[in-house]
Amino acid sequence: MRIVFLFVLLFPALLWGQVKITSPNLKGSVYRFVDMKGTGLLGRNVDVWVPANFDSTGQTKYAVLYMHDGQNLFFPETSFGGVTWGMDITMDSLLRWSQIRPTIVVGIWNTQRRFIEYNPKDAYRTLDSLTKIKLDKERSGGSESDAYLDFVFNTLKPIIDARFPTSPEMKQTFMMGSSMGALISLYALCKYSEFVKSVACLSTHWPVSLKENNATIANTYQNYFIQRLPNPKNHQIYFDHGTETLDAWYGAHQDRMDSLCRESGYDTVKSFLSLTFKGAAHNETAWSNRVAWPLIFMLKP
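Above: the chain sequence. Below: its structure as tokens.
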């Protein structure tokens, strides 16, 4: 029993098989890992997209883009409201026009505990007690973000690098998310900067609350992040937001964060980009329409 247990610990990739998912309109291919589990976390699927001309021989080494809310990326039948980011379509087009480097996309599905998995734990801890209690009542409180990122970088990433011909080093590893997924992406850059080079944060949900545009929370989280951003000479940050629906809350918060980032050395076109999309709402359609911007920014050949 001890020998078998040790074998499983040393080779966790053997625990999960990958299944090819077919769809007549899919550009490229998607391989799914079903019900992957991290320590203390609910199980979730993980979709891995590879390009149409994917080279499985190992001669081509691929960059890896990790994305949150993975069920919304490729397939309408699993996505929120039946609308996807169309990541396969955009990636396929950008690769065909040589606007990005060879890259695979790892879409990590969310779970019913999405909020607490994406809520940055160390930033949350810096809230004053009354604000924390108020937020806890609204959104079930707490945070499992450290366990979630441990799963991403210490369980999932080794499996991806073992199963696919990737370039595993930091300079070829990227992350993107929207809303709370943007917050957890920025948190990952602060906590795991040795693993990830660039993050794209679309419609960053600075107030965290859904009931009020809470400047106290936004400022507290930003103050945490700005003190822990890695060296801008080696890393990149992309931000954007719209101006309608929930995104209408973000303008002033994002302006403040942009200023803080520039003061911290993220002040070049290579290290930092923050865009405003007038008329864009807080939904998959809006993110799909502009996702080429962060892709080109992060994944230039």
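Residues 1-14 have pLDDT under 50 and may be disordered.
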